[in-house]
Design a protein that fits this description.
The protein has about 300 residues and is an alpha+beta fold. About 10% of the residues lie in helices and about 15% in strands. It has a single domain (about 1-303), classed as paralog of FGE (formylglycine-generating enzyme), CATH 3.90.1580.10.
Length: about 300
């Protein structure tokens, strides 16, 4: 079901929003400080979450179920950058995870001592690229710091919120439509620029980026959000459970009593094959997992 709303998506200067400010119109942009992420107001809506299938039995993406998000919230227009993460590290002295898991030329391995400052690109990471080699714990520490810094309710998005935005107001197999080969205008995934780097087939289109791309390099979706699919995977709040069944259907996160074995991670990355780029595809890894293709997108509650 397509969400019915009108959004102005011009990249206008961000405005400061206080906690007691009335909810902004859908599509409005704001930032709570000069170095804070730019946020997009996401409207309420309904969608069908999940897919009755998957790439394998242990990666089942269903069963499909209706979800109603009856509230507006804000989502980062962009993935958190290295420059933004550095401000957090410098301000707090926080030590992110290390021994980052990365492609070493022949296989994927944990590389001792490597972390967000050395994510395995063969060069230094750039300030405008998304931070990677960050765990779920690192992501939670960043949003907790941002919430304290701004006195605003920042958090990680829930799995339902993330998929709602990734569906882009529709229910097609991919964010951009039905054709898995047609996403290069919107998503940095395993394409002709990256061909030969991984032992699987690239799509026929070309997004112009052999590895990670600067945030916002490609086309935003209809909600006004960039890189929701591709570039780097994004941690979500939920404790992963498969199949769906006990989750709430109101957009809230699924949590468990006691230890959560795996957290959700969504969106695919620059090295991911097309079948992993569907809005319904569900990554899941331990809270301390650190890899060169996992990053952060933040959410924020609105009044």
């Amino acid at each position: 079901m397509r969400v019915l709303f009108a959004i102005a998506f011009l990249l206008v200067p961000a405005v400061s929003v206080q906690a007691d400010t009335v909810a902004l119109d859908p599509g409005s942009l704001f930032s709570d400080c000069a170095d804070c992420p730019q946020m997009v107001v996401i409207p309420p809506g309904d969608f069908v979450m999940g897919f009755d299938g998957g790439v394998s039995d242990d990666r089942y993406e269903g069963p499909p179920h209706p979800v109603t998000i009856g509230y507006s919230f804000a989502l980062g227009m962009l993935e958190i950058t290295n420059a933004q993460f550095r401000i957090f590290v410098d301000d707090t002295g926080y030590v992110p995870g290390t021994d980052c898991r990365m492609w070493t030329g022949k296989s994927v391995e944990n590389v001792p001592g490597k972390g967000w400052l050395e994510p395995g690109y063969g060069r230094d990471p750039r300030d405008d690229e998304p931070v990677t080699c960050v765990s779920w714990h690192d992501s939670k520490a960043y949003v907790a710091w941002l919430a304290e810094k701004t006195k605003q309710p920042y958090r990680l998005p829930t799995e339902a919120e993330w998929e709602y935005v990734a569906h882009d107001g529709g229910q097609t197999v991919h964010t951009w439509g039905e054709d898995p080969e047609a996403g290069c205008a919107e998503a940095n995934y395993y394409d002709q620029s990256a061909a030969g780097q991984r032992p699987w087939n690239p799509v026929s289109c070309d997004d112009g980026h052999a590895i990670v791309s600067p945030v916002g390099s490609l086309t935003k979706n209809d909600f006004g959000v960039y890189d929701i699919i591709g570039n780097v995977w994004e941690w979500v709040e939920d404790c992963y459970i498969m199949p769906y069944g006990t989750q709430a259907t109101d957009g809230s996160a699924h949590q468990v009593d006691g230890v959560c074995e795996k957290r959700g991670v969504r969106g695919g990355a620059w090295h991911s094959r097309a079948t992993w780029q569907r809005p319904t595809f569900r990554g899941r890894d331990t809270e301390g997992f650190v890899t060169q293709v996992f990053g952060i997108r933040v959410a924020r509650d609105l009044p």
